[in-house]
Amino acid sequence: MKVVYSDKHALHDPAFFLVRGERKESAEKPARADILLKAARAGGHEIVTPAYTGLVPVLAVHTPEYVDFLQVAQREWQKLDGAGPEVIPNVHPVRYRGSYPRAIAGRAGWHQVDGACPIGAGTWEASLAAAQVAVTAAQIVMDETRAGAAAPMAYALCRPPGHHAYADMAGGFCFLNNTAIAAQHLRTAHQRVAILDIDVHHGNGTQGIFYARNDVLTVSIHADPADYYPFFWGHAHERGEGAGEGSNLNLPLPLGSGDAIWLATGERALERIRTFAPTALVVALGLDASEHDPLQGLRITTDGFGRMASLIASLKLPTVLVQEGGYLGPELGDNLGQVLRQMSA
């Protein structure tokens, strides 16, 4: 399998993470990508450098105001008296309709939903590189499909991750929604695209981007947001709206769920995808459902990841795997290796 990777991910190295009122080291560190790359190489997969794709694929899912903010935020933030090295808002326009502010502190609150997405000096460049990784992987799959390959696959080793990013809002370690960008790029060649998100957290940004559309099916298997991040989105009653009614399926699981219920839920997800009849698939590959992951939402084994990968491969669709969560733990590389091995089998 071709693995698309950019070393520019390391330009984003967040220092600030607020956990229960205490400042902690962020779980979303460059070492994540180093472990994943090592596992991909160990599996004999071909490492590919992403093409420069510019802003067009990014602007296909994100608003111009938001993209502009990400580009200038850290630079403008540094002009404030006493500013720290990272853009971290302390005000948000929650619950009530608001107006778009001019001040950088106000724009930060408008575009950053939580404190887990600090913007540093290299965040924009790293995020854009991750988006280009996703687009390049999607283009590889499209090109191989046109060349006659049966169900080609590519893995986008994206960092920072993306599925919590809305069209105009960062959150949960995410800035540009790599999964949505890949899906939208696939839409240039496919009438119907499905997204399956198996990250331990609900892909709320991805859901929000496609919520009113019926050409992209969004399916997410995740820890129940009644008890777990992102809390406000990802509930079973959220089915889409307008033209997208019925094109969103959330399958929340109790905290601590293990392989059996996760895989059974995966069967339900695949049943819905088959009914939708897409001609291409994007998998938001979160490995943070692992029993060893520090965030401890679900309890999935390495074998469980492999079995889920086999289920997904049984769809026999052109498939882009987009890296989402999966944090520093002893099994991170093993879990990716098992997924890629079973998807390629």
Could you explain how this protein is built, in words?
This protein has 345 residues and is an alpha/beta fold. The chain has ten helices and ten strands. It has helices at residues 31-42, 56-59, 64-77, 104-111, 123-146, 178-186, 204-210, 259-276, 302-313, 332-344; strands spanning 2-4, 17-19, 22-24, 46-48, 153-156, 193-197, 216-223, 248-253, 280-285, 319-323. The protein has an eight-stranded parallel β-sheet, with helices on both faces. Strands 2-3 form a two-stranded antiparallel sheet. It is globular.
Considering the chains and any ligands shown, give keywords for the structure.
eight-stranded parallel β-sheet, two-stranded antiparallel ribbon, 10 helices, metal-binding, His_deacetylse_dom, hydrolase, HDACs
List the helices and strands and how they pair.
Layout: E1 2-4, E2 17-19, E3 22-24, H1 31-42, E4 46-48, H2 56-59, H3 64-77, H4 104-111, H5 123-146, E5 153-156, H6 178-186, E6 193-197, H7 204-210, E7 216-223, E8 248-253, H8 259-276, E9 280-285, H9 302-313, E10 319-323, H10 332-344
Parallel strand pairs: 1-4, 1-5, 5-10, 6-7, 6-9, 7-8, 9-10
Antiparallel strand pairs: 2-3
Helix pairs in contact: 1-10, 3-4, 5-6, 8-9, 9-10
Order of helices and strands: EEEHEHHHHEHEHEEHEHEH
Q: Can you tell me the CATH class?
A: Alpha Beta
Shape: globular
**CATH homologous superfamily annotation:** Histone deacetylase domain
Rounded to an integer, what's the Rg over CA atoms? Answer: 19 Å
Strand content: 5-15%
Q: Helix tally?
A: 10
Low-confidence segments, given as residue ranges, are: none
Helix share, percent: 25-40%
Give the CATH architecture.
3-Layer(aba) Sandwich
Remind me, CATH topology?
Answer: Arginase, Chain A
Strand ordering within the main sheet: 4-1-5-10-9-6-7-8
> What's the number of extended β-strand segments?
10
Domains, number: 1
> What structural class do you assign from the helix and strand content?
alpha/beta
| Distance between the first and last residues' Cα | 10 Å
Q: Describe the largest sheet.
A: 8 strands, parallel
Q: Quote the average pLDDT.
A: 96
GO molecular function: histone deacetylase activity; hydrolase activity; metal ion binding
Keywords: Hydrolase, Metal-binding, Zinc
InterPro entries: HDACs, His_deacetylse_dom, His_deacetylse_dom_sf, Ureohydrolase_dom_sf
Cofactor: Zn(2+)
